[in-house]
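Notebook entry, structure prediction.
Reason for the run: the old model in the group folder had no record of what sequence produced it. Starting over properly, with the input documented here first.
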Amino acid sequence: MGAKGYLSPDQLEFFSSQGYLVMESFARPEEIDAMMRRMEQLVDEFDCSTASIFSTKNQQQHTDDYFYESAENVSFFFEEKAFGDDGNLKQPKQLSINKVGHALHELDPVFKAFSSSEKFCGMLLSLGYRRPIIIQSMYIFKQPGIGGEVVPHQDNSFLYTEPPTCTGLWLALEDATITNGCLWAIPGSHKNGLVRKFIRGEGGVSFDHPSPTYDKKDFVAIEVKAGSLVLIHGDLIHQSFENQSSKSRHAYSLHVVDTDGCKWAQSNWIRRKVEPEPLFVA
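New structure, fully documented this time:
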């Protein structure tokens, strides 16, 4: 690792060939602790009388104004399995939330400090970004027993620029294992290009093509320790399974796109009134 988070030639080569890269010990224990404590406070203060559910299987059905407006807010989304037949939570809200997003990196000082740190900027600069913006951020809980599945997908499907420039930055705040729902990916699948787009139209959101069928044996598990950062190419096919264990799998995820000579697709679900400030201009 070079100074200020720059990637080494070997790391860049691995990312280029495989479509992902694990950077161990990217976040310090005190940084992890600060983000987890801050999220605990945010959840405690959250009034859960307004329930919005997040699902990668049925988001077309669950999409509402709350979801759209989350692009510029700190919004809370519940697990599909958090509610009983009576419509009430089956367990405390702290164990029922799927994720919090999508502007933590802008609106919360703790998450903003980490998301705009020198090591983030140095890493993005070494990836070739010239005017990067964080287009969304999420705190993902992967709750014990009910943490929902995230089906195989590509980040460029949801956050498309012309040309495509999205990179996912997935930080493990807790150990991520096969048992509690770690990431899985098809190495090298980013070389096959974008399969489909998630389009926002007048009638809501939908994919322009059905999902291909993937062979489970092509996926590899990306098990990482807390503090590890996983870089994910925008065209990489990746997923995670339900968390059926008794241990949570907290993570902080960001998605970055370049705005230097790149056009943000108006068909994306995120429509910002004001473009976010770039992390740097190269």
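Summary: Residues 30 and 168 are 23 Å apart (CA to CA).
The old model has been moved to the deprecated folder.
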